[in-house]
Amino acid sequence: MTTPPERRIAVGRVVGLFGVNGWVKLFSHTRPREAILRYRPWHVDVGGVVRTIEVLEGRLHGKGLVARLAGCDSRDVAAALIGADIAIDASQLPATGAREYYWAELEGLRVVNLAGVELGSVSHLIETGANDVMVVRGDRERLIPFAPGYIQDVDLDTSVIRVDWDAED
């Protein structure tokens, strides 16, 4: 019996080149942004082909991040990685507390209101100053605050988020 592949979480992207020795510039989805450098190995998707790559070193550089990756020792090799998504195994993430979730766990879940009306599924989340907001796409797009009072229950096992939200809003 084979075990199913582990779920992967997108944590960033290769966005450019840094120097001539194969270093790359990164965009990080992690908080703080340099946390991406702590996760090893990375699964890098280059044109639909996923390669597992070790991070040899990395650091903050100005407002961004740079890293040196195993097997990437020239500018030409690094150039092939530009635009590649970076993912890690979900098991590499720290455990969450009660009623805490990673955004990646919420994306794709069905959203149902208290009357049992399915509003759609979570497309993505937006960070605002006050609270995070779920973008729910169904018969139309709804922006629902991911905040107490609106979110009644998140059930990852059944992939459903119950919300206190009128279907007409």
TrEMBL record:
Q: Name one GO biological process term.
A: rRNA processing
Please give the superkingdom of this protein's source. Bacteria
One GO term of the cellular component aspect?
A: cytoplasm
Q: Which residues form the Ribosome maturation factor RimM PRC barrel domain?
A: 103-165
Domain named RimM N-terminal is located at 11-91
Chief subcellular location? cytoplasm
- Which InterPro entries does UniProt cross-reference here? PRC_barrel-like_sf, PRC_RimM, RimM, RimM_N, RimM_N_sf, Transl_B-barrel_sf
Q: Which Pfam families match?
A: PRC_RimM, RimM
Q: Which UniProt keywords apply?
A: Chaperone, Cytoplasm, Ribosome biogenesis, rRNA processing
Subcellular localization, as worded in the UniProt entry:
Cytoplasm
* GO MF entry, a single one: ribosome binding
User: Which purpose does this protein serve, as stated in its record?
Assistant: An accessory protein needed during the final step in the assembly of 30S ribosomal subunit, possibly for assembly of the head region. Essential for efficient processing of 16S rRNA. May be needed both before and after RbfA during the maturation of 16S rRNA. It has affinity for free ribosomal 30S subunits but not for 70S ribosomes.
* Domain remark in the UniProt entry: The PRC barrel domain binds ribosomal protein uS19.
Family, per the entry? Belongs to the RimM family.
| Quaternary structure annotation from Swiss-Prot or TrEMBL | Binds ribosomal protein uS19.
Q: What is this protein called?
A: Ribosome maturation factor RimM
